[in-house]
Amino acid sequence: MSTIALQALGLETSHLVDYQDRLVHNQIVNDLDALNKAVKAAGFEFTIASAHRDFHRQASIWNAKFSGKRSILDKNSIPIDTDSLTDSEIVESIMLFSALPGASRHHFGSDLDIYAKNCLAPHESLQLEPWEYQSGGPFYEFSCWLESSLSEFGFFKPYDKYRGGVAAEPWHISHIKTANMMTKCVTPNTIRDAIAKQNILGKAAILAELPRLYTQYVTNIAKN
Ligand SMILES: [Zn+2]
Prior knowledge:
This is D-alanyl-D-alanine carboxypeptidase-like core domain-containing protein. By secondary structure, the protein is of the alpha+beta class. It is about 35% helix and about 10% strand. Zinc ion (ZN) binds next to loops.
């Protein structure tokens, strides 16, 4: 597999550099810095909640959810009782909020979860839930600013709304040019190769339905 394919699957990290104590793709730094400065000029404190995450980190989140050590939430943030679910149903439940290891856009280094720290009241802490970015929530104005300005800096929101796959993630931004380059390397075949060799719970159920899961959750995003 090519180096770039390994990077896109979260299995290689030589493309990453440090930015505000997070790891990001070296090709996004200039645009990210320009965005950061514009966000500040608009009165918001640009804060990164999460940037690059590698395959093994994603696998540990996945396995913790699959095994019940970490709760799987439904659309209304209520924990799901997985006792009566098949492996295939558990896989689908996890994928509403957590990507399949190898198929997370956080592997790319081009994608970040961001918020505006100065919009939180002293007693509030970040939840990364959609209401915070909607009308009445602490980041509503920040979110509106992003909506109208992100594209100027080469970014977009892949999970701007629910499309029957991944839940809405209004905090998740993606560097268009870099992410599109990485996306080309993430196919049912490369995901299969990555997963087949690793300890991933529910592997048989995942591999049996990979082409459909790929269409429903991986490529089912906003246009850019
Ligand atoms: Zn994200």
